[in-house]
Design a protein that fits this description.
This protein has three helices and five strands, in the order αβββαββα. The protein is an alpha+beta fold. A five-stranded antiparallel beta sheet has the order 1-2-3-5-4, covered by helices on one side. A hairpin with a 3-residue loop joins β1 and β2. The radius of gyration is 17 Å and the shape is globular.
C-alpha cells in the first residue's frame, strides 16, 4: 500500500467508496467522476503503478474478475455496449498511478466518443517494427 495513493486509501477503508465487488486480489468501485452511471474501476489490492508492474498472477486473475463485474453491471443497467479501458502513463491519460481497469457502460446514441487520429505506416515501417519486436526475448 502507498500512503499517498487515493486507491490504496479506498482499499484500506480510509476513504469512502461505492464498492460493488471484492475478492482476495481486487476491489471494484464506482468512479467518482464517471463518464456515465455505472462507470466502474477494478483495482488490485496490492499497489502497482501500471500494467507493466502488474504481477503475472494478478494479471491472470484480472479478466475473470472484470467479466464477473461487467456481467453484474449489464444485468442491472441493461446497457448496449461496454468499453473496457486501461491507461498506462500520463501520455495515455492515466491520472491515478495505481493500476486500474475501467468498465464504462455504453448506450446507443449516448454522445460519448473515444476517438483518435490514425496513422498510415508503410509496409517497410511495419516490417522493421515487426523485426525489432520479434528479436526481443521475454
Amino acid at each position: 500500500m502507498s500512503a499517498d495513493c487515493i486507491f490504496c486509501r479506498i482499499i484500506n477503508g480510509s476513504l469512502p467508496s461505492y464498492k460493488i465487488y471484492e475478492d482476495e486480489l481486487f476491489v471494484a468501485f464506482f468512479d467518482i467522476y464517471p463518464k456515465c452511471i455505472g462507470h466502474t474501476l477494478i483495482v488490485p489490492k496490492k499497489h502497482c503503478a501500471n500494467f507493466y508492474d502488474l504481477p503475472k498472477e494478478t494479471a491472470s486473475a484480472l479478466m475473470p474478475a472484470a467479466q464477473s463485474v461487467a456481467r453484474r453491471l449489464r444485468q442491472v443497467l441493461n446497457f448496449d455496449g461496454l468499453n473496457v479501458l486501461q491507461n498506462n502513463g500520463e501520455a495515455a491519460g492515466q491520472t491515478v498511478f495505481h493500476y486500474h481497469l475501467q468498465l464504462i457502460p455504453r448506450y446507443k446514441n449516448d454522445g460519448t466518443f473515444f476517438g483518435w487520429k490514425t496513422v498510415k505506416p508503410s509496409d517497410e515501417e511495419f516490417m522493421q517494427l515487426q523485426e525489432k519486436i520479434l528479436k526481443i526475448n521475454n
